[in-house]
Specification:
- The chain has about 375 residues and is of the alpha/beta class.
- The protein is built from 16 helices and 12 strands.
- It has 2 domains: about 190 residues, Rossmann fold (3-Layer(aba) Sandwich); about 180 residues, Glycogen Phosphorylase B (Rossmann fold, 3-Layer(aba) Sandwich).
- The radius of gyration is 21 Å and the shape is globular.
């Protein structure tokens, strides 16, 4: 008999979606094949859910104010719970889960922790008071849950240290991607030709939100040093964010206009080709990276990632190639890591090795089976 689960998400993946939203969507797609009958509630347009649209309900537009979305979440969640056809509630964002906190004692409540909301907000310039309010919401939600599912050992430590959740109530289930979508058949040269990218030279890709903690500024600074050692190298930066004007100005100031190109938002259907076209995917995070979904997506496309030793990133890359984990997130160490990888001083894994590694460890189907196992344990 299927377990009936109500999933409380943030938004359905769109141009602005982060890794947590993509994990939410992959679970919605694959949990049913593991014996989970689900409904999901999110903010925004549920029409983007495709074949899953019948299982999705919206509690407000993404552009609505916070209070309006919170009240909408409270109303829609209450309607689902009062209908009585729910065995377990799984929440993916503390703000919306808090809207129904008084109702989340029966049935059991599971939190999927995708990142420290308060700390991330503070990192991006939120006031101390605002961040404290967000932390209080998070703490109440996480401590009320029967179980907290995290994407990495690094995030397990955060949940215990920062929110006081006992370690015995935490389960580590690595994030994953819908790998088939990224396993393109094109060779690297064919992918470059399809995208109109240079056919010669070494190409780097970084798929990042253009905000402080993602480290794109340090990657740009590192490029000046990398280019001195590898003159043909070029960097393509995919993503949007408030720092783009400042980053573009930095590129110009360093004389790197012919070596660094901003792609803006890359549509989902083009992203696999972009990963495939690159020699390396670069994740230069400086703080609060619990997993690193783009590393998994790139691996599925056959492209290894060079990462900083932040959060859960080393947990993904070290078993494949420890030399692709930089010594630190400093500019010098990012530059050194890139130069070593591009110049042949590091034995970079082949496309086949990257894909096999992704399939073995990071398929969305495997993640869904593991999550379903936790749900079944709590409902037993």
């Amino acid at each position: 008999m299927s377990i009936r689960v109500l999933q409380i998400g943030c938004v359905w993946p769109s141009e602005r979606a982060g890794g947590g939203d993509r994990v939410f969507a992959d679970l919605a797609k694959y949990l049913p094949s593991s014996g989970i009958a689900l409904e999901a509630v999110v903010a925004g347009q549920t029409a983007r859910g495709g074949a899953l649209v019948a299982k999705l309900a919206s509690f407000g537009a993404e552009t609505d104010g916070t209070r309006a979305r919170w009240l909408g979440a409270r109303r829609v969640i209450a309607e689902r719970l009062e209908a009585g056809a729910v065995d377990l509630v799984a929440s993916h964002f503390a703000l919306y889960a808090s809207a129904a906190l008084g109702r989340l004692r029966r049935p059991p409540h599971v939190v999927h922790f995708h990142g420290p909301w308060a700390a991330e907000s503070r990192e991006e310039g939120d006031s101390r008071l605002s961040a404290l309010a967000k932390w209080a919401i998070e703490r109440a939600v996480y401590r009320s849950a029967r179980c907290v599912i995290v994407l990495s050992e690094a995030f397990a430590a955060v949940v215990t240290r920062d929110y006081g959740v006992p370690s015995e109530r935490i389960r580590v289930i690595p994030g994953a991607a819908d790998l088939e979508r990224f396993m393109v058949s094109e060779s690297r040269s064919e992918a470059r030709r399809a995208l109109g990218w240079p056919s010669e030279g070494r190409l780097l890709l970084s798929v990042r939100r253009l905000v402080h903690r993602t480290g794109v500024d340090r990657l740009i600074d590192a490029m000046r040093r990398v280019r001195a050692a590898v003159p043909t190298v070029r960097l393509f930066i995919a993503g949007t964010g408030s720092l783009r004007p400042a980053l573009e100005a930095r590129v110009s100031a360093l004389g790197l206009n012919d070596a660094v190109q901003f792609l803006g938002y890359v549509p989902d259907e083009m992203l696999p080709l972009a990963y495939r076209a690159a020699d390396l995917n670069v994740i230069p995070t400086t703080a609060l990276e619990g997993f690193g979904l783009t590393a998994v997506e790139a691996l599925a496309a056959g492209t290894p990632s060079l990462v900083t030793p932040i959060g859960g990133l080393p947990e993904i890359i070290t078993p494949l190639c420890a030399e692709l984990v930089c010594r630190s997130a400093d500019v010098d160490d990012i530059a050194r890591g890139l130069t070593d990888a591009l110049s042949g001083q590091v034995a970079v894994p082949s496309a086949a090795a990257c894909r096999s590694f992704a399939v073995e460890r990071f398929s969305a189907e495997l993640m869904a089976r593991r999550v379903a196992g936790v749900y079944q344990e709590l409902c037993a």
